[in-house]
Design brief:
Blueprint: E1 15-21, E2 27-37, E3 41-46, E4 55-63, E5 78-94, E6 97-103, E7 106-109
Antiparallel strand pairs: 1-2, 1-4, 2-3, 3-6, 4-5, 5-6, 5-7
Length: 112
Amino acid sequence: MYNRRQKERFDLELPLKVAFKNKEGILCKEDTQTINISSKGAFLLFRNFVKKDSRHRSSIFLPVGQAPTSFDHKDELTREIELTGKVLRIENKMDDRQGIAVSFESQRGINS
């Protein structure tokens, strides 16, 4: 079987803040986490419904030492990376959420 992925994916659950427009075109913000991630994209679960090819702006919190466990990082060493990209694939609803594959097209480090 041919694997289309250009970069290796890692099964990491990392906190992620995402801003995107839902199916009605309304700007939504959602705190979620990655299911898996690579340098080119990630697979996430969203409660809001999005359209394929819609744009997103995200902040991901990468561990520098201990893995972050929440969005309150006061006692943990993390690096926030701001990402932009688009929704590549939408999978069937999982519990009350959608599975979303997103690409990362640009990134910028915010803190260290």
